[in-house]
From TrEMBL:
FMN binds at residues 29-31, 56, 60, 150-152. Binds 1 FMN per subunit. It is an enzyme of class 1 (oxidoreductase). Residues 28-180 form the Nitroreductase domain. Belongs to the nitroreductase family. It comes from the Bacteria. InterPro entries: NAD(P)H_nitroreductase, Nitroreductase, Nitroreductase-like, YdjA-like. This is Putative NAD(P)H nitroreductase.
Amino acid sequence: MTLPPPVDLGAPLPSPTPSPEMLARLATRRSAPAQALTEPGPDAGQVADILTLAARSPDHGKLFPWRFVVLGPVSRAEIAEQLGAMAVAKGLPSKARAVLAKLTAAPTTVLVISTAAPASKPVWEQQLSAGAVCMNLEHAASAFGFASSWITDWYSYDADALPLFGVGEGEKVAGFIHLGTALEPLLERDRPDLTAITQHRP
Ligand SMILES: Cc1cc2nc3c(=O)[nH]c(=O)nc-3n(C[C@H](O)[C@H](O)[C@H](O)COP(=O)(O)O)c2cc1C
């Protein structure tokens, strides 16, 4: 499966047409438990395509306030070992070590880093854009036939842990998006009551 050829800058894009397949996917996509993600995962070409699609996300001011780190299993295993030792040294609850299984299971992981900083557009909007990238990444992975899991966990907020992943000063983790194939069918979860959260005004 290949992406359509890129459209030249400023050239007209195809207008949206009804897509029952896309509707069905949007209506049924679900996250997988990260520990249940296994081979096959995306190959290098598919990862490149998935990132290409993820980077086609709205951002105010064309600041592109995000970047990617693609983490294979080797680097994640090494980092998880260091995080395990860190969790013990910091006296964190045993759960902090247990959740490291979510970090290492999937064949491939994309770390989406928010690089938001004071600029022409509000930082909040830049951070929202990083969230949009994560969601588009999950949809793109789904279009290639892969399941995904968006995880943060304690090490996304720990100043000592972040450098292990290459997260720099002032940057934030938007999400670790784990990619692979779900071991078992995913079960629907509860969804919000739209009437409770939606207002219609004339
Ligand atoms: C920003 C963000 C961070 C999350 N971090 C975690 C996490 O650390 N651990 C976890 O088990 N789930 C986490 N989740 C929730 C999972 O991604 C969850 O599987 C997902 O929201 C389920 O929704 P879905 O099936 O509609 O995709 C996070 C979700 C978001 C949006």
